[in-house]
Specification:
258 residues; alpha/beta; TIM Barrel; 33% helix; globular
Length: 258
């Protein structure tokens, strides 16, 4: 055994001196502009390649230092306003005004509840969300809520799309802006694929690039992590990227906030 070890020693020393790139082994963590408590590997199409990064927040982010976020080049924020027809996020007003004071473009989102008519939900969102021309378009967050204790309904796809359209039409008529649609991989595949082509999508994909998992769907925003770490927020937060370049972002923003 001693002679075997001596024979292998030169090879072991060589391996110890090599880097992973020398050995042809790629890192299994994608580069990121910000921190991440659970970083993922996206290969060559990693989020850090995108010029424009932003966050989405709800009351669970606690106290937020919006000026720190601005200095860290956070370019936009989507803020939870309402859920269903009777829940309002406790931090919405604070976040809404804080982001604006810091000069971070922000928009509000509504989390859809399958046990309440869309008309009632749209009215609730409008009642609790200011009409502000400088805001980003409102967002309909539509996904399965596996953790809901009060609503276990899973309507058929046709009914879901009808209810979505009711909400989208009412909200657009009030704010004068076509809403964005936020969704997840499974919900999109089961209910939205091939539909709502005249809407801009904000998609969640935390394990693969959205181009690989959202079939027949152009997207404008990509939520790539739910465990991000950014200056100004203690703990985890969602981080997103805009699909285009810095120039395209400025053009999109100008059209969205006029």
């Amino acid at each position: 055994m001693h002679h075997i070890f001596l024979a292998l020693t030169p090879l072991l020393m060589l391996l110890m001196s090599c880097t992973t790139s020398d050995l042809g082994i790629e890192s299994q963590v994608s580069p990121s502009r910000y921190g991440d408590a659970d970083p993922q590997y996206f290969g060559s199409s990693h989020p850090a390649k995108h010029a424009i990064h932003g966050i989405d927040v709800s009351k669970w982010q606690g106290d937020i230092n919006w000026n720190k976020l601005r200095r860290a080049d956070i370019a936009f924020a989507f803020i939870k306003s309402t859920e269903g027809g009777d829940h309002r996020d406790d931090r919405f007003t604070q976040y809404w005004h804080g982001a604006k004071r810091a000069g971070i473009p922000r928009g509000a989102y509504h989390f859809f509840y399958f046990c309440r008519p869309a008309k009632e939900q749209a009215a609730w969102f409008i009642r609790n969300t200011p009409k502000d021309r400088s805001a980003l378009p409102p967002v309909l967050d539509i996904e399965w809520n596996h953790q809901s204790k009060t609503c276990k309904k899973r309507p058929d796809p046709a009914k879901i799309r009808r209810e979505m359209q009711i909400f989208l039409d009412i909200v657009q008529a009030h704010y004068g802006k076509r809403p964005l649609i936020y969704t997840t991989v499974d919900f999109h595949e089961q209910n939205l694929e091939g539909h709502f082509g005249n809407y801009q999508f904000w998609v969640r994909s935390v394990a693969d690039h959205p181009d690989n998992v959202y079939r027949r769907r152009d997207w404008h925003f990509w939520q790539y992590t739910g465990t991000g770490r950014v200056p100004g927020i203690d703990g985890n937060t969602d981080i997103n990227v805009f699909a285009g370049s810095q120039k395209q972002w400025k053009e999109w923003l100008a059209n969205a906030t006029r």
